[in-house]
Design brief:
The structure is a single chain. The chain is an alpha/beta fold. The protein is built from 13 helices and 15 strands. The chain folds into two domains: 201 residues, Quinone Oxidoreductase, Chain A, domain 1 (Alpha-Beta Complex); 137 residues, NAD(P)-binding Rossmann-like Domain (Rossmann fold), CATH 3.40.50.720. Strands 3, 4, 5, 6, 7, 14 and 15 form a seven-stranded mixed sheet that branches. Strand 11, helix 9 and strand 12 form a beta-alpha-beta unit. Helix 5 crosses helix 6. The structure holds nicotinamide-adenine-dinucleotide and zinc ion (2 copies). One zinc ion binds next to helix 2.
Length: 345
C-alpha cells in the first residue's frame, strides 16, 4: 500500500509499505476513505516530537471502512464505516476509567507517533471497540474527519480547560484549524467577546466569518495593548494558546485577566519562560492537556444537528498519491489559504 512516511526532520515521502496485519485480539484494520494533515504533523516534521521516530507512517485523523477485526472486537465488523479517534484507549486502565484516555496505559496519542498512522491506504487501530466510533448513515464523512482531533482538541483543551462561560471574554492565539475549532465550540457557551490573534490576514478573515468579535494581527507586536483596549484594561478571562511556540505562550501571559485561565493547546518543542514575577498574585490557572476525545460522541451530535459546521474548515482536497503536495499546501497556508486539507485514500 501507499503511505506517507516521516524520514527525519524536514523529510517525508510517499512509500510502498506492506498492508498492516492484526497483532492483538482488540485490533481492527481500517481501509482509509479520507484523512487529513494536522499542525502536529508539521511539528513532527520540525523535529519537535521526540517520540516519533523516522520510518513512522504519519497521520492520526480519518474515516474509513473496517477491513478486518481481531477475535476480541465486538462493536464493529467488516464493512462498518468508522471515525478513527486520534487517541487510542483501552477503556479499562486507571486513566481510561477516569476519562483521561489521552494517558491510557496502552494507548493515548500513539497513532502516527509511536505506531503507524492514517496517512495510508490501511491502518491498524488498537483497542478498536473503544477507539473507533460508528459513523451514522448519511453523515457527511468529510465533516466527520474534523472530529478525529481538531474539534475535540479545540473544545477540550481550549474551551473546557479554559472554563469559557456565558458573558466571558476569550482570546484565542492561533487561527489555524485548532484555534478555529476552539472558536466554533466556544460559542456553545455564549462568551461576550472572542478575540482571535494570528499573523495571517486570511485566517483572521475566516475567524471573523466564524464568529470572532475582534481579530488582531499580532505582527506589529501590539496585540497585548489592543486586547487591553478591547477589555477595558482587564485582559481576558480565558487565553487559549493554539500555536505551540514560545512567543504565543508568552503573549497569553500578557493577555490573561486576574482570575483567568491560560489554556495551552499548542504542542511545544522548546522551553518557554513563565513570568511568575508578574503572575504570582493574579489568581490565574494554567492548564495543559493532550486531547482525551471524551467529548467526541457529544460533538458528533452537534455536527449532525448542524449546531457546529466543521466542514467549513475544509479548503483543499488531494488524492493520497499527491499527499506530499498536500503537505506543501498546508505548510504554506499564508500563501495557499489552506485550513484543513482532505486526503482521499
Ligand atoms: N494538545 C493537543 O492535544 C493538540 C492536538 C492537536 C493539535 N495540537 C497543536 O495545536 C496547535 C495548532 O494546530 P493547528 O493544526 O491549528 O496548526 P497550524 O500550524 O495550522 O496553525 C497555527 C497558527 O498559528 C499562527 N502563528 C504562528 N506563529 C504565530 C505567532 N508568533 N503569533 C500568532 N500566531 C502565530 C499561524 O499563522 C497559524 O495560523 C499546534 O501546536 C498543534 O500541534 C495540540
Ligand atoms: Zn492532530
Ligand atoms: Zn486505557
Amino acid at each position: 500500500m501507499k503511505a506517507l512516511v516521516y524520514q527525519g526532520p524536514g523529510k517525508m515521502a510517499l512509500e510502498d509499505r506492506p498492508k498492516p496485519v492484526l497483532q492483538a485480539p482488540g485490533d481492527a484494520i481500517v481501509k482509509l476513505l479520507k484523512t487529513t494533515i494536522c499542525g502536529t504533523d508539521l511539528h513532527i516534521l520540525k523535529g519537535d516530537v521526540a517520540t516519533c521516530a523516522p520510518g513512522r507512517i504519519l497521520g492520526h485523523e480519518g474515516v474509513g471502512v473496517i477491513d478486518s477485526v481481531g477475535a476480541g472486537v465486538t462493536a464493529f465488523e467488516p464493512g462498518d464505516h468508522v471515525l478513527i479517534s486520534c487517541i487510542s484507549s483501552c477503556g479499562k486502565c486507571e486513566n481510561c476509567r477516569r476519562g483521561m484516555y489521552s494517558h491510557c496505559a496502552t494507548g493515548g496519542w500513539i497513532l502516527g507517533n509511536q505506531i503507524d498512522g492514517t496517512q495510508a491506504e490501511y491502518v491498524r487501530t488498537p483497542h478498536a471497540d473503544t477507539s473507533l466510533y460508528p459513523i451514522p448513515v448519511g453523515a457527511d464523512e468529510e465533516a466527520m474527519v474534523m472530529l478525529s482531533d481538531i474539534l475535540p482538541t479545540g473544545f477540550e483543551c481550549g474551551v473546557l480547560s479554559g472554563k469559557v462561560e456565558p458573558g466571558a471574554s476569550v482570546a484565542i492565539v492561533g487561527a489555524g484549524p485548532i484555534g478555529l475549532a476552539a472558536l466554533l465550540t466556544a460559542q456553545l457557551y455564549s462568551p461576550a467577546t472572542i478575540i482571535m490573534i494570528d499573523l495571517d490576514a486570511n485566517r483572521l478573515a475566516v475567524a471573523s466569518k466564524f464568529g470572532a468579535t475582534h481579530v488582531i494581527n499580532s505582527a506589529d507586536g501590539k496585540a497585548a495593548e489592543t486586547v487591553r483596549a478591547i477589555t477595558e484594561g482587564r485582559g481576558v478571562d480565558t487565553a487559549i494558546e493554539a500555536v505551540g511556540v514560545p512567543a504565543t505562550f508568552l503573549l497569553c501571559q500578557e493577555l490573561v485577566a486576574a482570575g483567568g485561565v491560560i489554556a495551552n493547546v499548542g504542542v511545544h518543542g522548546h522551553m518557554v519562560d513563565l513570568h511568575l514575577e508578574k503572575l504570582w498574585s493574579m489568581n490565574i490557572a494554567i492548564t495543559t492537556r493532550l486531547v482525551d476525545t471524551v467529548t467526541t460522541p457529544m460533538l458528533m451530535k452537534t455536527v449532525r444537528a448542524k449546531t457546529i459546521d466543521p466542514a467549513q474548515l475544509i479548503t483543499h482536497r488531494f488524492p493520497l498519491e499527491r499527499i506530499v503536495d498536500a503537505y506543501d499546501t498546508f505548510g504554506r497556508a499564508a500563501e495557499t489559504h489552506a485550513l484543513k486539507v482532505i486526503i482521499e485514500a
